[in-house]
Amino acid sequence: MKNSIKILTLALLAAFGASCEDILEAPTKSSMDESVIFSTPAYAKNAIAGVIQSFGETNSYRGRYYTHYGVNTDVEVKSGLSGTAEPDDKARLSNYNTNVANGEMNVGNDTYVKAYEGIERANLSIRGLRQYADLNNWELAQILGEMLTLRAVLYVDLLKGWGNVPARFEPISPATIYLPRADRDVVLKQLLADLEEAAGLVGWPNENAYTITNEHINKAFVKGLRARVALMAGGHSMHMGETAMRPSNDPDLAKDKMYAIAKKECLDVIESGTARLQPQGTWASSFEAAFRAVHAEAHVAGNEALWEIPFSTERGRVIYTWGIEHKKVDIYTAQNKGAQILPNPILFYKYRKEDVRRDITCIPYEWDNGTVSTTGNHVLRSLNSWCFGKHRYEWLNRRVTNVNDDGLNFLYMRYANVLLMAAEAVNELDGAGAAAPYLREVKERAYPENSSIVEAEMSAAIAGKTAFFNTVVDERAKELAGEMYRKEDLIRWGLLDAKMISNREDLAKLEARTAPYNNVNAKVYSKTAPDGVSLLLYGLEPGQLGDPGDASYVGKTWKLKGDTDTKTYQERLYARTPSSQPYWPIWESVVIASNGKIVNDPVFQQ
Question: Domains of the chain (ranges plus CATH)?
Fold first, then answer.
């Protein structure tokens, strides 16, 4: 897959290389080509690479969407919240005050534009396959299912980012060059239908020659994605022309119906036995192994990673954005990057210390002092600048030599998410007792050596439907932190404002060291361990108060607000009530080019 992204065959170029004008002026010119392309598996499969290419473009997922979307929340934050400068355009993509002429995105070839480029390529393929493919041929059926699913992925991310967007499910024609925005319900209903169809076309993990790799679409992922779409559809959102978040009024998207779809799809995946939590192997925990497997770049289907967006080794900024920062070029990377998106400082203190997810997810150090021939060593960061640790240069089996891109695939969905969606849906429909086994599986992995903690937490969770739901809300934060789900979750639950307000309060309590954070030390002390690389720490763990009684440790004041900061850390999280602008505007350049069809909601007219 990685190699096929780089090269499109001449046949694919014939189908996709023409401009919109060429397509509209000469629709019959390529009809013979299409009949060959979409009836021949060897040609048709190259169309998949054409859609994936739209994910990897410079201002698409590679360098804009996954580097900016989904922050700020009670779990993930954009770097640079401390300081004295007023929010720049990068900050405004995160602080719920985004401008239509945003300099990072209003560039004509941004994520929004590239998503519709990918959708058009998928639309052309879907039309060609429906018209010319023998769908009794498993390979052509698989390709059609992949196209329907890739189109759905693009629309899911458009809905997450922009709310209500044009519904374009057919190739461009003279009548549809310019389309207005559609209410998100229109899109969501189409996606539910498309993914139901796709599930009947693609193979389960390892069922056919495509689905032996999680760089291709498989039935477990399709069903997981359909469950996710159903949860979005049944939850809160901002509809066309409105200023308040609410559930849909469409009876077809009623909450109970959407939970029923989510339950069915998730249980289908679980009961199929074709995916599972990652085997622990040689690593410290199954949780660590899940991310080690992504970095091994073997892309083996049937374990935890249900689908990865494939980037070539010269594309993608996953570690660059979400990884532990390397201050110097060293033996692991030619980039002095990482830590563009960070854990919310409160996140570390929300985990129990026995939770194996904590020390994989929340990293208090960076790498420094390295050279091309040496590793460097860990250096303590600050309370306001933790790193995420699920993505690391040092976990790769290769050195990153590109100065801008690390080439790591983006882990789009994993099996743990299916378990948690199942727990949420089954609790809503059948109660906490029925839902408990799915939550338990996630908790047992989080506490592999602490069954008593699992039992205590499960006992509290199954006290009732509300208690169980609240546990799922917290568990999704701990399990999926740094994976770009939290903002979507908070929006659909109708909890965006409440969680952001309580997070501000928590951060203020942490800074002041008032309960429940009165057991967090005012300083964190560190020294390099005997291995010459890692750190020995004192004061990071709650309850480690005072100094370590060892003069070889160096103390660092552990606080959020810098001495010259003009605002507190928590004040910079959002510039306006988050629910008043939960999405980005459609960018000015797109609006101008829309022939008056696209108009943003009034909240963006500023």
Answer: 205-310+409-483 (1.25.40.900), 316-406 (no CATH), 521-557 (no CATH)
